[in-house]
Design brief:
single chain, alpha/beta, Rossmann fold, 5-stranded parallel sheet, 8 helices, globular
Amino acid sequence: MGNLYLVGFMGTGKTTVGEILSRRLRREFVETDRLIEEKEGLDIPAIFSIKGEAYFRKVEREVLREVASRDNLVVSCGGGIVINKENVILLKKTGVMVCLKASPSVIYERTKSYKHRPLLNVEDPLKRIRELLKERERFYREAHLFVDTSGISPQEVAEEIMRKLRNA
């Protein structure tokens, strides 16, 4: 199977579900955003504000290449990792892409208190969530499997993913 890559918009549960899956599957868990922060010595908002989104996406590609060279990982990918076609090709080639989805209102409720989400630090975050979801929808559709996390617990999401993996 290679790596198990969790993709999807921020607030869909990639980190929480990834940690559960890593325990159940006895695999190491990594987060691309955390690896980027470690590599850069800055948090994501600082990277965006000091160096810009283009720089962040370049480092994100480098980190993904490093992660994809390993095997048997559960990987929580940054929400925008799929907007780069090279990234999607690498994800699909080295593992299974599972897209976690949620409704815009659920995402807003889950992320409204976050101050570390540079793309949502705008006047109308719910509107911005809808815009970004629409922009990224075609990229997320590249995933092998899909699970809607609205209204179910992270444990139930993990169980659904494991069920789908068994049946794939």
